[in-house]
Amino acid sequence: MSALAGLKVVDLSETVGGQYCARLLADFGAEVVLVEPPEGSALRRLPPFSEAGDRGSLLFFHLNTGKRRISLDQGDAEGRGALDRLLRGADVAILSPGSQPREVLRRNPRCVAAVVSPFGADGPLAAWKGPEIVLQALSGMMHNNGAHGREPLYGCGRRASFAAGLAAYVGVTAALFARERTGLGQAVTLDEAETAAAMCFPYVLQHIYNGTVKGRGDPNIPAGQVRCRDGWVCIWIYNHRWSAVCRALGLESIEHDERFGAPIPRRAHWAELFAIIQDKVADLRAEDFVATLQQEEVIAAKAYRPTELYGSAHLAQRGYWETAEGRLILGPPFRLSRTPRQVRPAAPTAGADAGWTPAAAPEGGGAPAGPGPLAGLRVLELTTAWAGPMAGRVLGFLGAEPIHVESPTRVNSWRLNKEVPNPINFPDGVPGGRPYDRAFHFNSQNINKLSCILDLKTGEGRDIIRRLAAVSDVVICNFRPGTLARLGLDYETLRQVRPDIIVAELPAFGAEGPMARYAALGPTMEMSAGMSSMIGYPGGQPETTGPSYLDPIGGFNAAAAILTALLHRQRTGEGQYIEVPQVEAAMQLIGPELLAAIESGRDPEPNGNRSPYAAPHDAFPARGDDQWVAIAAETEAEWQALCVVMGLGSLAADPRFATLAARQENIEALTAIIAGWTRGQDKHAVAARLQAAGVPAAPVQTAQDLARSEYLAHRGFFTVLDHPDAGRHPYPGLPIHLDATPGSQRRAAPRFGADNRHVLRDILGLTAAEIAAVEASGAIATEPRPGA
Fold first, then answer.
1. 282 and 227 in contact (C-beta within 8 Å)?
2. d(Cα 198, Cα 176) in Å, to the nearest integer?
């Protein structure tokens, strides 16, 4: 059974994001027709390419498996007529940048028409070029990556574009869900640049709260890397796990060493500590070492190379790798118990007539536009940190009512309740009397939510959570596998009290398999997904993308899976269980690179920002401390234009740089020439000059730059909200734009336990006496309890 069976989709997108959105629609049951021009989709000509015969672009293959493909020439009347017939019968149309969704809706009012583009159809950056390095530079993410004093690192692959496709899928499925209420389709628009900004760690809110800017020279996260005999391992050493680290390593002798025993001296001697660990583990197998650490509940991960993932025992036990069209493909980004992914068999090139009948016009012109597409749905969140709360935040943005549940003794970690208050985390640098309500981390991800604090160790608390589940449509949990079952809240139990409930869990490595119980964070998931092995300076250790890049990716995948299940429930009345293995979901974003390495047997080597397909392709110093501008020349025309803007037109004819191969051969000399030109210039001004000349470029933006961004302001990215403890501030938003039932940020993140009585009285219908009894039992709280 497929969740989206019967839906008809026309893919005209010609973008990575658009084609990935359509691929997800195909994976979960829609009939998707990819419409290509006579010369073929532009993505057929983008790397990486297969080395096996005439199989062509692995990017194109990854994006379009399971779709029907037809060729139409929109320049002649016959082609335009065939396309018109397709669009009149379509439920969804994924359009190319520059298209007008409303033109499709005038012909077919029930169609959802979506456009994914780099910067949107209007605004200050509408004419800019946006390859991955430009998108990451503008997002604020790139500024956090790499070593202070060296060029910041952009990452790998086309992850911003894939993330935009995922966000577009969320928008399209939400619009389809709303169509049941309104009878009408609508326009859905996504910018890759705005999506990339939404995926960035919320340092922009830190800056908005107190004016500080997180720099790469600031104290780092409590993690480091060591080299085992077969690969790198990342270890997180939280203060409360120090004893466990010493036990796991057999280094009890240093547990109370004056250099390492306490947190402050340990940070001061960090390099010395990791030199000791390195000596201890150099001859160990990386996977064995990680297993030893994880047994002591120390967060650690191996930086897997792509070819190693194909041989992974964990992925093999989970049946991850599949085939389609006689070729290897990646497994699903999320698993639905009733409506799993089913990749369609290869279809021959279809004729222009898909056999679709035109959609009937809605009776009476359709219902008027209303609130968010998910208005009326309730989401119960048992989540912490970023990935789970991001999933609930997306659903809340789209109109659902999320209830964020925390324990009075196990507070959401992003409230920073276990840490000594650091002024940089709070408005005006002041922790205040309730610092757990003022931390920018928590307040960035819990907009639109209610807060209900329940002690599930008490009978009263367990009774309330079950009653809440019975009146909720969705339950989200991002704790370790088995947590819901221990609480008596697993899917099989909850479906007894609400048969159509949807339960989504976000285990890092899945619910089953040798690594299922491993604890993880965004950076260690990036290591496990094969990304980090492709990011780094030549000859150096693997790098990660900022503090937690994969957390929001996991959150968006969970929202996408939940919306898929909601569409199925809307038609059948059936709920289901959802597993979002975050590492596997993230692998989709580098699918082409994984397939290329597995096919060739060669893993890509980290090489800074340099690319085999463009030169230059790097970040260059600009005026100011740790200020940079990203520049990429992907074509000869862009290279020649760069030379003109630099005032070095003769450089284009220099034999050292006359071709891409020559520029790659002489990249050090070329980098020095460009750096000599950019150094001392304002990064914003030089990027604007280059883009005006047709050269992809962007300032590597800081949190301050994001807060002042004219582009994000034009997109309405920030919403001013009043928080009772944090005050009135602009809050960063989400990139999903629906024109008829738009999402919104309606209320600031909740104070701890602020909505307890509302939940008990207005949602559960408890009497005043019953509420008093619950309060007397200690099952609810409005402040964290000691030791939380």
1. yes
2. 23
pLDDT exceeds cutoff 80 at 360: no
Taking residue 283's Cβ as centre, other Cβ atoms within 10 Å add up to 8
Asked if the bond preceding 389 is cis, omega within 30° of 0, the reply is no
Q: Could you tell me if 330 and 323 are in contact, meaning their C-beta atoms sit under 8 angstroms apart?
A: no
State which H helix or E strand residue 36 sits in.
strand 31-36
Contacts of 411 (CB under 8 A, 6+ apart): 417, 418, 436, 752, 784, 788
Residue 504 near residue 476, CB atoms below 8 Å:
yes
The strand order across the sheet containing 223-228 reads 223-228, 231-236, 300-302
- The beta strand positions in 181-281, using DSSP E, are 187-191, 223-228, 231-236
Contacts (Cβ under 8 Å, ≥6 apart) of 571: none
Q: What are phi and psi of 320, to 5 degrees?
A: -70, -55
**Closest listed residue to residue 601, CA positions, set 141, 25, 52:** 52
- Does residue 723 carry a pLDDT above 60? yes
Residue 640 CB neighbours (<10 A): 17
Whether 235 has a pLDDT exceeding 80, the answer reads yes
**pLDDT confidence of 357, banded at 50, 70, 90?**
confident
Residue 268 phi, psi dihedral angles, 5° rounding: -70, -25
Angle at which helices 242-249 and 286-295 cross, to 10°: 130
pLDDT per residue as tens digits for the range 643-660: 999 999 999 999 999 999
Say how far apart CA 145 and CA 221 lie, in whole Å. Answer: 12
Nearest to 460 by CA among 783, 777, 785, 781: 777
Q: For residue 59, which of 44, 42, 38, 41 has the smallest C-alpha distance?
A: 44
Identify the CA nearest to 753 among candidates 447, 410, 498, 404. 404
Per the listing, tokens 């500024």 go with: 143
Distance of alpha carbon 548 from alpha carbon 550, whole angstroms: 6
Q: pLDDT band for position 580 (50/70/90)?
A: very high
Residues with Cβ < 8 Å from 72, sequence gap 6 or more?
Answer: 35, 36, 37, 79, 82, 83, 352
Query: Using CA of residue 20, residue 22, residue 24, residue 26, what is the dihedral sign?
Result: negative
Of 507, 532, 385, which is closest to residue 445 (Cα–Cα)? 385
* pTM to 2 decimal places: 0.97
**What one-letter code names the amino acid at 677?**
W
Q: CA-to-CA distance for 270 and 257, rounded, in angstroms?
A: 13
Q: How many CB atoms lie under 10 A from the CB of residue 35?
A: 26
Q: Is 236 left (phi over 0), alpha (psi -120 to 50) or beta?
A: beta
Nearest to 593 by CA among 166, 64, 161, 156: 156
Cα–Cα distance between 694 and 638 in angstroms, integer? 6
Q: Compute the half-sphere exposure of residue 301: CA atoms within 13 Å on the CB side of its CA.
A: 29
**Non-local CB neighbours of 44 within 8 Å, separated by 6+ positions:** 56, 57, 60
Secondary element (H or E) of residue 706: helix 703-707
What value, to the nearest 5°, has the Cα angle with vertex 289 and ends 287 and 293? Answer: 115
Contact (Cβ atoms closer than 8 angstroms) between residue 629 and residue 622: yes
Residues in the chain: 788
pLDDT in tens, 170-182: 999 999 999 999 9
End-to-end CA distance of the chain: 44
Distances (CA, A) of 520 to 144, 247, 657: 20, 20, 45
Query: Is the CB of residue 642 less than 8 Å from the CB of residue 695?
Result: yes
CA dihedral 726, 728, 734, 736 (to 10 degrees): 150
Strands annotated E in 143-262: 187-191, 223-228, 231-236
pLDDT beyond 70 at 254: yes
Paired residues of 9 in beta bridges = 32, 92
Name the token pair of 653.
Answer: 């004819």
3-class secondary-structure state, position 276: helix
For residue 389 the two structure tokens come to 């709360």
| Separation of alpha carbons 773 and 476, rounded Å | 28
